[in-house]
Automatic annotation (TrEMBL):
SUPFAM superfamilies: Ribosomal protein L25-like
Domain Large ribosomal subunit protein bL25 beta, residue spans: 98-176
HAMAP family: Ribosomal_bL25_CTC (MF_01334)
Residue ranges of domain Large ribosomal subunit protein bL25 L25 in the record: 6-90
Keywords: Ribonucleoprotein, Ribosomal protein, RNA-binding, rRNA-binding
GO CC term (a single one): ribosome
Family from the record: Belongs to the bacterial ribosomal protein bL25 family. CTC subfamily.
Record's protein name: Large ribosomal subunit protein bL25
Ribonucleoprotein listed as a keyword: yes
Region (Disordered): 1-20, 185-221
Subunit-structure text: Part of the 50S ribosomal subunit; part of the 5S rRNA/L5/L18/L25 subcomplex. Contacts the 5S rRNA. Binds to the 5S rRNA independently of L5 and L18.
Length: 221
């Protein structure tokens, strides 16, 4: 994985007011920490940082006053309404160092007919080299039959990556599709449990009798 290069500036003012001023200048407040070093408070270029952080686990090469810092984003705070980046925590890493990261899971392929594929986990926690983090891991369900279960331990991982989480966690579950009859039966059972009684439809004979009673009697001589 190639590191995205960003040029940063040291930040000496703090607090909400200072952070707003930084963002108005189209920059993002951030802090670099790790490996026993004192936290380094910086500002990052707004657009370039936003583009870089579109990729999960983006490796960044941040230059501050001529010194390069190889970092991973550990916490990206966003405005809950507008979505812009408010602050970034950056963890210092070294080449060859192993780190734990959450990697997205992509399900590929088409399961057997009349089945439903349920993805139970969207990420897996892996231990990988900081400079060789996979963008995703794939789980194929091609032609998988109903009853197929894929656990974290079953997922084929990229070379050099090891599973850091629970191997028994369920990642994908392939079940049989529910028929219309099964849905109707489940609905009726739920209504019965809730004490809801369905109105029985009128029989055709009863409808005809009601129509006859409502019809005007014919004049008799």
């Amino acid at each position: 994985m190639d590191a995205t290069k960003l040029s940063a500036e040291k930040r000496d003012s703090f607090g909400k007011g200072a952070a707003r001023q930084v963002r108005r200048a189209n920059r993002i407040p951030a802090v670099v920490y790790g490996h026993g070093e004192a936290p380094l408070h910086i500002t990052l270029p707004g657009h370039d940082t936003m583009m870089a952080l579109k990729h999960s686990n983006a490796l960044l090469d941040v230059t501050v006053e001529g010194k390069s810092h190889l970092v991973l984003p550990k916490d990206v705070q966003r405005d809950p309404i507008k979505g812009f980046i408010e602050h970034v925590d950056l963890l210092t890493v070294r080449r060859g160092e192993k780190v734990e990261v959450d990697v997205p899971v992509h399900v590929t392929g088409d399961a057997a007919p009349e089945t439903v594929v349920q993805q139970e986990l969207t990420t897996l926690t892996l231990e990988v080299e900081a400079t060789n983090i996979p963008e995703s891991v794939e789980v194929s369900v091609q032609d998988a039959a109903a009853g197929t279960l894929v656990t974290a331990a079953d997922v084929t991982l990229p070379q050099g990556a090891t599973l850091a989480g629970d191997g028994e966690q369920l990642v994908v579950n392939v079940t049989a599709a529910v028929t219309a009859e099964q849905l109707e039966a489940e609905l009726e059972a739920a209504e019965a449990e809730a004490g809801i009684e369905r109105d029985e439809p009128e029989s055709e004979t009863a409808s005809e009798d009601a129509a006859a009673d409502e019809a005007p009697a014919a004049d008799q001589d």
